[in-house]
Amino acid sequence: MRKLMAELMKYRRQFVDLLVGVPNYERYVEHMKTHHPGAPIKSRKEFFCEAQEARYNGKGGKVSRCC
Predict the structure, then answer these.
(1) Of 23, 36, 39, 60, which one has the greatest count of Cβ atoms within 10 A?
(2) Do residues 51 and 24 make contact, with C-beta atoms less than 8 angstroms apart?
(3) In terms of pTM, does the model score above 0.70?
(4) Model confidence over 6-49: pLDDT tens digits?
(5) Which residue, among 13, 32, 20, 27, has the nearest Cα to 65 in the 3D structure?
């Protein structure tokens, strides 16, 4: 039962992150260590700033959002 609840909470967290557009830094670090072991890992601040830049300035400076 605990394993099921932990799994549900994991998916809930992912859903909320995707819903509000917040990238997951821990997932990024895990991916980098697994798939790119020699590559440098960005700091949390660098990662967040890059994600914000990609989200809001990805279309030539035009804000891309729903409202």
Answers:
(1) 23
(2) no
(3) no
(4) 888 878 877 777 776 677 888 889 999 999 999 999 999 999 88
(5) 20
